[in-house]
Amino acid sequence: QCDLVHHNGKFFLYCTIDLPEPPPAAVVKAFLGVDLGIVNIASDSEGESHTGKSMQRNRRRRSTARKQHQRTGTKSAKRKLKSMSGRQRRYQTITNHVISKKIVASAKALGFGIAMEDLKNIRKRVEKTVSRKFRRMFGNWSFSQLRSFVTYKARLAGVPLVFVNPKNTSRACSDCGHCDKNNRESQSAFKCKQCGFSMNADTN
Question: Which residues are paired to 50 by β-bridges?
């Protein structure tokens, strides 16, 4: 299927194709655990992290620029606002495509499946409990889009994908299983109070 679309004075040809999906591996050696977050958009159990610094920096730059043009209010400022529309969203989409591709490629190379946190409806559960400053960052968190990208890329690669309950995953020790809220000493530091095992908190 092809659709010819006229958008913002330009023509685009959208082509839709159907690709065969290989059957997922019947047996996997292990699962690549993927932790989702804001400081680190995604961290896997093999120690690779995808930082969210560039996305946050881009979001701040776009927000500041929009405010400046809105305060100016001239015709040229309004034209600039129109041309800026959607840039942040597109940047975020490209970033999530790159991260999801790396996650699926890593799992396929290792012969692993992928286990991701199931964060559906997390905004409803958490948003009222966080600060106003954090709420804006939280509202722009695109974990749902990342999840959808990993899902279809894993299906195309034949990599099994499962979603797990995130409850206590930030508190439980990956070495001995001991669960304690004091195990996570900071955003980045994890040290088990029972066995002394320590590593990056997101990787744990």
Answer: 42
Helix (H) or strand (E) holding 61: helix 53-72
| Residue 96, CB-side half-sphere exposure with 13 Å CA sphere | 22
**Residue 109, SS3?**
helix
Nearest by Cα to 24 from 149, 116, 147, 113:
113
Three-class secondary structure of residue 76 per DSSP: helix
Angle 53-72/75-84 helices, nearest 10 degrees?
A: 160
Query: For residue 190, what are the CA distances in angstroms to 39, 44, 114, 130, 202?
Result: 15, 15, 23, 22, 8
Q: Compute CA 140 distance to the chain's CA centroid, rounded to the nearest angstrom.
A: 11
Per-residue pLDDT reduced to its tens digit, 20-74: 888 877 767 889 999 888 778 888 988 888 876 776 676 767 677 777 777 777 8
